[in-house]
Fold this sequence. Notes:
Elements (H helix, E strand, L loop, with lengths): L1 E2 L6 H10 L4 E4 L6 H13 L4 E4 L6 H11 L8 E5 L21 H5 L25 H17 L8 E8 L11 E8 L4 E7 L10 E5 L5 E5 L9 H4 L19 H14 L9 H20 L3 E3 L8 H5 L12
Parallel strand pairs: 1-2, 2-3, 4-7
Antiparallel strand pairs: 4-8, 5-6, 5-10, 6-7, 8-9
Amino acid sequence: MLIASPDHWHGVQTVHACQTGKHVYVEKPACVTIDEGRAMVAAARKHDRAVQVGAQGRTGWGAYYTCRAIRNGIVGRVNRVTCWHYENPVDTNPVSDSDPPASLDWDLWLGPLRWRPYNARYAPGVFRWLLESGGGQIRDRGAHQFSTILWCMDADRQTAFTVEATGTPPQRGLWDCPVTMKATYQFRNPDWTLVWEQPGDKVGKTEFGNVFWGEQEKRLILEWEGAYRGAEPEAVDFQVPPGGYEPPRTNEYPDFNMNHKADWLRAIRDGDHRPAVDIEIGYRTAALCILGNISYLLGRRLTWDGERVVGDDQANRLLAPPQRHPYQV
């Protein structure tokens, strides 16, 4: 089953698909809440289904060459990764609530979200700029960039971190995602820092990307997320030392989108192969984005132990907002 619905439907549809015995390819971000992500992972494991999240960097050449170079020490030990990205837009053309178009089932479109009257600035594609449904750039492109970064840093199992996010709220319109934003994540054992910034310091040539900072200020740039853009020449030309790390990568198609789907089909055929962006990786990646937004909303630093926010009941309530009946996991 291929799921390319709005983000707020991903969790419900993935869980129900697994319950009916279907393997799932779900677009990123995997989920919009922590509770949804946990349910998706649990359903995939309980029903032994292959669930691939559509963050294609891990089957693209750019991310592969960058991961190979970083893991084998091209810049020494990486202590910091910074992301630059353009800002969230502002709703400069607000309109009044109205009846939905005759072709749109508004109740069904809202699905698990709380009820609200239709407004043309809520949907369809502009749902991205509402924290509740889309989460802004950090939960959209961040789901791509963070997935690749975690792979390059061998950090899929580093599930605990702190995050502190600040931003500039929009001054008009319905969209509530912060226009500018900075989210700083601190990981331990090994220690390193991840910084998401809108707009940030545009080190590369394109509108968004990442910089891996190593020893003596050595650096390696990766434009976009490593799928639509290739790696830097020094990463492509890097020679893996004897006994060095060779990143696994399905390589059946030159097109990274097709290759990512081929990786999913391989997981369906071969029970021993987990998808490149298995649902647990997708959920953990989305958790970075979700908790960054929660930190921004609450205006304080959060300590995440991998399951809960330590000592913060208000933040923990935001991990599982209620879903509308009958659209719940």
